[in-house]
Amino acid sequence: MSNLPGIVITGASGRMGQMLIKTVLDSDKARLVGAVEREGHDWVGQDIGAAMGGADVGVTVTSDALEAFAKAQAVIDFTAPAATIEFSKLAAQARAVHVIGTTGMTEEEIAQLEPSARHAVIVRAGNMSLGVNLLVQLTKKVAAALDDDFDIEVIEAHHHHKVDAPSGTALMLGEAAAEGRGVSLKDVRDSGRDGITGARKKGDIGFTAIRGGDIVGEHDVLFAAAGERIVLRHMATDRAIFARGALKAALWGQGKTPGEYDMLDVLGL
């Protein structure tokens, strides 16, 4: 058991954090060696199993990320952009694989991960599920096959707790559509329509974000032309798919050359 890769989960008290912890504890391919929460959090100093309402598992929640990372072969991180940037530096010091599921990162924030990727493996993706990454590939192919007589809209729906919009997955899909068309997303992105906006600009890629209830994640890519529509859809009904994908990425990264990777690399797509 001790020769299995050791995993640390950041943001341990969050919904994804708890799902990740359960996934690692249930796995026969990895072991949980750390759980990190912010300083002053009620869970710090408690056994993570007890903090989650179960039996002790022998892992104490800590606010000292560097100490936790030093014992790990991988860190799985679904937190916030500023925290992720700092965690990337500490994971690089520990030479631990850093799996990043954090969304809402700007281009400038993503660029700040580059120095860490020179020393350790970083796997970053807006979505860790197999189905979504297949959808990304399909979106790219369909966009490449259709001209700009087809308007492209990415429509996403998530639970009311989600703080960023469009979602990381929606942006992945938008990037795929733009790549298929041979354009840059930043030049054709159209989101946040409100009021008298004027007619839709030909060639733009639009985004619509829906927030409500406990929706895990739904994404449609709509290709609409006069007289016909094509809709590519993925619906997530269980957050566990993201946790399983993140663990797969953490295991895949063992022994890889330092650098930045994504789930397409992990899945061989």
From TrEMBL:
Q: Which residues form the Dihydrodipicolinate reductase N-terminal domain?
A: 7-128
Where is it localised? Answer: Cytoplasm
Instruction: Give the residues the record marks as binding (S)-2,3,4,5-tetrahydrodipicolinate.
Output: H159, G168, T169
Which CDD domains does the entry link to? DHDPR_N
* Protein residues bound to NADP(+): R38
The entry's keywords: Amino-acid biosynthesis, Cytoplasm, Diaminopimelate biosynthesis, Lysine biosynthesis, NAD, NADP, Oxidoreductase
Q: Which Pfam families match?
A: DapB_C, DapB_N
Coarse class of the protein's main subcellular location? cytoplasm
Q: Which residues bind NAD(+)?
A: G11, A12, S13, G14, R15, M16, E37, G101, T102, T103, A125, G126, N127, M128
Q: Which GO terms describe its molecular function?
A: 4-hydroxy-tetrahydrodipicolinate reductase; NAD binding; NADP binding; oxidoreductase activity, acting on CH or CH2 groups, NAD or NADP as acceptor
Q: Is Amino-acid biosynthesis among this UniProt entry's keywords?
A: yes
Pathway of this protein?
A: Amino-acid biosynthesis; L-lysine biosynthesis via DAP pathway; (S)-tetrahydrodipicolinate from L-aspartate: step 4/4
Reaction(s) this enzyme catalyzes, per UniProt? (S)-2,3,4,5-tetrahydrodipicolinate + NADP(+) + H2O = (2S,4S)-4-hydroxy-2,3,4,5-tetrahydrodipicolinate + NADPH + H(+); (S)-2,3,4,5-tetrahydrodipicolinate + NAD(+) + H2O = (2S,4S)-4-hydroxy-2,3,4,5-tetrahydrodipicolinate + NADH + H(+)
Q: Name one GO cellular component term.
A: cytoplasm
> What does UniProt list as catalytic?
H158 (proton donor/acceptor), K162 (proton donor)
Stretches assigned to the Dihydrodipicolinate reductase C-terminal domain: 131-267
Identify the EC number(s).
Answer: 1.17.1.8
What this chain does, per the record? Catalyzes the conversion of 4-hydroxy-tetrahydrodipicolinate (HTPA) to tetrahydrodipicolinate.
Q: According to its UniProt record, which protein family does this protein belong to?
A: Belongs to the DapB family.
Question: Which protein, by its recorded name, is this?
Answer: 4-hydroxy-tetrahydrodipicolinate reductase
Q: Which organism is it from?
A: Epibacterium ulvae
Q: What is the gene called?
A: dapB
